[in-house]
Design a protein that fits this description.
315 residues; three-stranded parallel beta sheet; Rossmann fold; 23% strand
Length: 315
């Protein structure tokens, strides 16, 4: 998000600023300088952890009212999706959710692009009369481009926080265990499957393939809805947005909702028996054939290569 923010700020001839709300500064200026940030608005307070909607909205609204930014972006994480609507309502400004593209038009307005009408079209949304122009941005949809800042100005804000406004108390935290050792949104290689596998049992072959490739397993919404795999593996508009080095997919036809979530992958290899499948439109390599049969043959070939490698080492 900061990489795209840097581009937007340059087009507007403005500074790129980051808001950091934390209990303690952990060299955030050093971290954020790698992404071209010019200044940091830093608020340190023990009440900022754990996250609380009421507290964060008061702090951020105070900063917005004081510094009046032209554009304010939030990550489309569970925190960003919770905080952004509250602030938009309090500030009486517009908010575009889950943007997959951002740009500045000739009039200096933020062009906020997102899927609309069930993902069937891409809409460009403008907020000509409200400031700041606000949007939440889906993770992994924009390429990270590190542009180191020469220096980062840190502006410390001593905003008073009344801890009594906290209405929720966290009593216990349970960490969810993932079946894959790599979270899908962080994976360099993703092996993804669709409804073309027809049954949950046939879909299981992708777990074997992913293990051989040291990859994570993904899925289309159709595969999730069919019960082949849990929703946390779903790639797409209503799932996780990914940008791996390799996106290897089998039996996914390629609805726009899915393509939005994986089109920024470096290399896309698609296997589908339908030559007209939309997924081929964003693929570098296309394989026409049965998803299950080709996945099975690929596993056999990888095992054969692995055995040959072991033999050469022992030879």
């Amino acid at each position: 998000m900061f990489s795209q923010g840097r581009k937007l700020a340059d087009k507007l001839n403005n500074k790129l600023a980051a808001v950091v709300l934390t209990d303690k500064n952990r060299d955030y200026e050093k971290i954020l300088s790698e992404y071209g940030v010019d200044k940091i608005y830093l608020v340190e307070n023990e009440e900022l952890l754990p996250y609380d909607t009421d507290i964060y909205s008061i702090v951020v609204m105070s900063l917005i009212n004081k510094y009046k930014p032209a554009v304010f972006l939030y990550p489309a994480t569970y925190k960003g999706r919770d905080l952004a609507p509250r602030l938009a309502a309090n500030l009486y400004v517009g908010l575009t959710a889950d943007c997959t593209g951002l740009d500045i038009n000739k009039d200096g307005l933020l062009v906020q692009s997102r899927p609309a009408f069930g993902g069937n079209i891409m809409a460009d949304i403008l907020s000509p009369n409200s400031r700041p122009q606000m949007a939440t941005v889906r993770p992994n949809v924009m390429k990270i481009n590190k542009v180191k800042s020469n220096s980062v100005e840190v502006i410390k804000e001593g905003i008073k926080i009344n801890k009594n406004i906290r209405r929720i108390k966290i009593v216990k935290r349970d960490k969810e265990e993932h079946t894959s050792h790599i979270k899908i949104e962080n994976a360099d290689i993703i092996v993804s499957g669709g409804r073309g596998f027809k049954t949950r049992e046939r879909f299981e072959i992708l777990h074997e393939l992913a293990k051989l490739l040291n990859a994570s397993v993904g899925a289309s919404r159709a595969a999730v809805d069919s019960g082949f795999i849990d929703k946390k593996h779903q790639v797409g508009q209503s799932g996780v947005t990914v940008s791996p080095k390799l996106y290897l997919n089998f039996g996914i036809r390629g609805a726009i909702q899915h393509i939005v979530g994986m089109r920024n992958s470096d290399v896309v290899i698609s296997v589908n028996k339908d030559p007209a499948a939309p997924i081929f439109g964003v693929s570098k390599y296309a394989v026409i054939g049965d998803a299950y049969d080709i996945a099975k043959k690929l596993i056999e070939k990888l095992k054969e290569l692995k055995r040959s490698s072991v033999s050469l080492k022992n030879g």
